[in-house]
## 1
Amino acid sequence: MRTDTGQVFKLEDYRPSDYLIPLTELSFRLSPDATEVKAVLTIERRDGVATTAPLVLDGDGLLLKKLEIDGTPLAQSTYTVTPDRLEIAHPPEAKRFKLTIETEVAPVHNEALMGLYLSNGVYCTQCEAEGFRRITYFLDRPDILSVYTVRVEAPKAEAPQLLSNGNPLERGEMADGWHYAVWHDPFPKPSYLFALVAGSLGIVNDRFVTRSGREVELGIYVEHGKEKLADYAMDALKRSMKWDEDVFGCEYDLDVFNIVAVSDFNMGAMENKGLNVFNDKYVLADAETATDADFANIEAIIAHEYFHNWTGNRITCRDWFQLCLKEGLTVFRDHEFSADQRSRPVKRIAEVRTLRAHQFPEDQGPLAHPVRPRRYREINNFYTATVYEKGSEVVRMIRTVLGPEAFRAGMDLYLKRHDGEAATIEDFLKAFEDASGRDLSQFALWYHQAGTPNLTVSSAYNAAAREFTIEIEQSVPPTPSESRKRLMHIPLAFGLVGADGRDMVYESVEGATVDDGVIHVRKRRHSIRFSGIAERPALSLNRGFSAPITLSVEQKTEDRIFLSGHDSDPVARWQAFNTLLTEALIAASRQIRGGKRPVFSDRLSALAGQIACDDALEQAYRALALALPGEADIAREIGNDIDPDAIFAAREALAKRIAEENGPSLRDLYERLRDNGEFSPDAAGAGRRALRNALLDYLALLTDGASLAADHFRLAANMTDRAAALTVLAHRHSGTPQATGALASFESRYANDPLVMDKWFLVQASVPGAQTVETVRRLTSHRGFSMSNPNRVRALVGTFANANQTGFHRADGEGYRFFGEMVLEAERRNPQLAARLATAMRSWRSLEAGRRDKARATLLAISGTEGLSTDLRDIVERMLA
Ligand code: PHE
Ligand code: ZN
């Protein structure tokens, strides 16, 4: 583990390196505790660089065995080496020379899961962002593009499959039962895209013919016996390849495309050129073991990594400050793909919910940073919701601002102009400016300025003048190290909804540029006047969630109710109802905190019942509408002095009220939605299950709810229904024989399937209430749990901290104390995992005083620990700052 040096990396310090590495030849002799790595690097001095410039290569915990230049060993006095750095003071004067480096690494002891490590006996690598330097000394930065040839040697019995990037060149037998394979990747790539996999794996094969006729061999490698579980992923891959040709004109460029599923992985998956490595959670699925959400995630992540082949690999990032160049853009692309494969509005609402749940708290707390940060201490800590999700929203806004044709022209230009290069956000924006002739300089602030902009909106109707006026004021709240903000360009999609539910047509508008249903907010204040308006409209704002902002709108409850039933934009329609629910829940939680009983209007529960039973609406949409705002969402809306217990009680009371007011009709619908036996993971099937399970959640609050949920569990024919019933039982009927029985039956059925057991850990870690911290502590000794597997840690400890407001924020601070211990425990093996886990405390300052003090004490205890990793120290110190 690297301990913190306090070094801060700054965007403005970027400078091209003195040397380039046009060719990289690697050979690996694999062994668990002493893998020999030989790197032959063709080094080239950049034009104009003095021959006296030293060559400084990055390392991380390396052991140097041998060093040669052009075949001659280097004298000890001519270089300096530490595990983290190799400096050759006087490289040869020739422009080009060959540097041979031999290092030795121990994959079996690599618990950080960066560099070369072993997962379930399979050798695999993870190099993004700075893992390659844990394999050999290198210019480990994304603007060094090199053509790789890789030879892998291993005992044939242990590792019949030997994989690396690019196309297979050659393979053969060696002495003593060893064999080898050689791979060549013709596309110059940065070191973070290097990958190697060797092991004994089951293989699923298929084929894809690209639009220009290239035949591509597709392979998905999984644990033996799990081949069937890769069918869905393979199907998603082929659909992704086709979609990228159709929608972005991007065609695949190698003869093979391989995906390997491993069980120990820090993130979701990795886009290594021609050899994607996946967390197996995002590959393996069937009806018995995966929920509809799992299927949707697999589809999205398979697409995401595949799409990186162009946005990330063919065009990569100049430096890590530009991470959003590949990530924000690729998330946007995978969102569009999923929207095309499933229901566009439902997908969009789900995106909005995710953005609010993950990115808003980040942007509104101590970890806020611009989509393109200017500083970092540890780049691993910048794989954030802001870079990914807000980064995607920014790309979406470019499309909204330019329109779909100019957007596509800009993309085409970007892909053509920068193919084979390491680019910047400026390059990206310039392509859109050049293709459209538009000026995006104010828009560019979305990349440079942190914080969630807010629009305060009010409106008035003047019947005599037939005019409707909207007053808009923008503000961007201060964020760490950015106290003063500049005015942004916010594309605000809107509609003036008439009594018949149709959008009203206006004669003219003044006060802002308004085109194609979008108000372009660019100034601090706009007073926008629409003329020729015959009646008072209901104002629908931020349709399609056109901008990632918060809105403070003065709006009549009447209008919100009307929009909940009639807005033609499904996202705004969902939002109108969700806002009604949120307002009611905030009021109720205040009442509860004041010692009163919460009061809800009859109309709200009636509206919930209507939406549930409105067959004109998509089932998945109805399920989303029925899901009450989460406790964390409500807390975020309240903003400060948060009492999680009051919020929980308010939410329970409203759920109960909705269930009681609509019992018979919800029950009737629940019966009608019964399974017809056939399972299909597509949007229609998933929508039906989502709605039925949302109904179960309400019905479980009524008399006999526990036995209804127990029947649902017993009769479930797929994991979606089974997991939903298990959650309802464990959360709403904790401790009953039905809940205990279901947990036991689930455990015995899936004891040998770690990915499914994660669901079992997750359900228990999220049981509301003060006692859960004890349950979770006990489960850390369960035989299925392991502190060194990131999926296990996230399922149990991560869920407890992120998805259990009443348990984690227990008033006596025990939740935080336990969590602090777990973070430190994880950190000893895997700093990246620990740092990510720790971000669960990012909103600690918004808690009420008692909890806030206890949370601070835990953060101080972590930061007071000696020898912390850069990863964890960076996160904890920023949270405390
Ligand atoms: N680049 C990966 C993705 O988003 C994420 C990742 C980052 C994976 C760092 C591993 C390590 O597709
Ligand atoms: Zn990505």
## 2
Amino acid sequence: MRIDILTLFPEMFEGVLGSSILGKAREKGIVEYHVTNFREYSESKHGTVDDTPYGGGGGMVLKPEPIFRAVEAVTAEAKPRVILMCPQGRPYQQKLAEELAQEEHLVFICGHYEGYDERIRQYLVTDEISIGDYVLTGGELAAMVVIDSVVRLRPGALGNQVSAVEDSFSTGLLEHPHYTRPPEFRGWKVPDILLSGHHANIVRWRLKESLRRTKERRPDLLEKIEWDKDKEMQKLL
Ligand code: ADE
């Protein structure tokens, strides 16, 4: 998979793309990251990328030329998804992460401070994504969130593939509690059932705990579950 990131602050990505699972995925050849400063595609001598808004008002607006030229430079023949990070976008959820993880090429456009000239949205971008109802100083942190959640879903990116399948949200439920050694810590014990070695009972306990936790913390998620298919699960609720 190839991921292009267009930003005015390429240095923001260095640590994130080089560390942990994202860094390992690059080393394993699962993903290539290309970070481009779109100021290089400015048509002006001074590298101008923004201008005052037509109609007046405060703030600056990102000009279309540098962003169109930067996207065209990285997309030569192919037509990848071109994703604009902005608070007005589609709310980001695991389902969209799973969809984006199927693509072979993604391009992220990250603006800072300013608004975007509307022609970027209309004629260049295929997806607008928001990571939540709050305003960041720029799209970079939001793009990192999306990239992190997509790359970990690529085959081979996680050491243990089971962990992606059992994630909260991909099962539709929050995860059950986890424990490791020691069996007793400061008087707090690991539930006996997990030490019992009885696999079927453990599976049942985990499902029950997942349901309990989901009901307690995110009852809205339970409404989305197809209970017809999951009668066994409903009985545990
Ligand atoms: N840029 C600024 N705020 C954002 C948000 N909430 N999501 C995505 N991009 C953004």
